[in-house]
Write a structure and sequence with these properties.
Length: 236
């Protein structure tokens, strides 16, 4: 069975050696290390050109010697739309976490963390990438999901490209069209049970979906907020 390739971008050699040992002993993964943004970009480009396929996971520190890791997240996301991007940072401010998610990160772990927590979160994200096509193609009210390229086709025939997380959220809303879907249910389905109380994750992605799907994102007609509960999808 092919191993999942992980790129660790971390300039602290002690942390890098610790994680290489912790993750490297797992037979399911192979781990490469980059100590700077430039080195990370070179390894990503080199792997994309090879027959090995892209990295499945990028573990990204933010405080790097040649720049802020935050600035490279959109570049990674644009070139690797299916890769899990997990930020590893000592920064605890909510504003930084929100910016990371807005840039395209899938998860944010604040240092210190245990290897067990890191691997558990990583595995949860990878499992959610392996959805079965027959389970994810709801077609409701003229809206339908196109699994093969993660597009949403609206009733007017417009096709909207979605990120994996956006895709998973709109899928849950389509499958429950007209019903209020709780924050907890959405967070558990998309990020896993360890994120069931992280409602700020959801707010960011709902806003991004509204910007893509609503005529006026500030006054949505389709993705409706149910205060204190969650969100409801309404098609007309």
């Amino acid at each position: 069975m092919a191993k999942d390739a992980i790129l660790l971008v971390e300039d602290d050699q002690g942390i890098a050696d610790f994680l290489k040992t912790a993750i490297g002993r797992d037979p399911r993964y192979t781990l490469q290390h980059a100590g700077s943004l430039r080195e990370a970009q070179e390894q990503i480009l080199q792997r994309r050109k090879s027959h090995a396929g892209p990295f499945r996971v990028v573990l990204l520190d933010l405080g790097l010697p040649d720049g802020d890791g935050m600035d490279v997240i959109p570049w990674i996301r644009a070139g690797l739309p299916e890769t899990v991007i997990m930020v590893l940072s000592a920064r605890h401010q909510e504003e930084g976490k929100i910016r990371a998610f807005q840039s395209g990160a899938d998860d944010y772990l604040t240092k210190p963390f245990t290897p067990g927590e890191l691997v558990a979160r990583m595995e949860a994200h990878l499992r959610r990438l392996q959805v079965q096509p027959q389970e994810i193609n709801p077609s409701v009210g003229g809206w339908s999901l196109l699994d093969e390229n993660r597009l949403l086709r609206t009733g007017e025939g417009r096709e909207v490209a979605l990120t994996m997380k956006e895709y998973q959220i709109i899928r849950m809303l389509l499958l429950n069209m007209g019903k209020a879907v709780s924050h907890q249910k959405l967070l558990t389905a998309v990020w896993g049970p360890t994120h069931a109380d992280q409602t700020h994750y959801l707010r960011i992605y709902i806003q991004r979906l509204r910007e893509k799907l609503e005529e006026d994102p500030n006054h949505p007609r389709h993705i409706i907020t149910e205060p204190g509960i969650g969100y409801r999808l309404i098609l007309d």
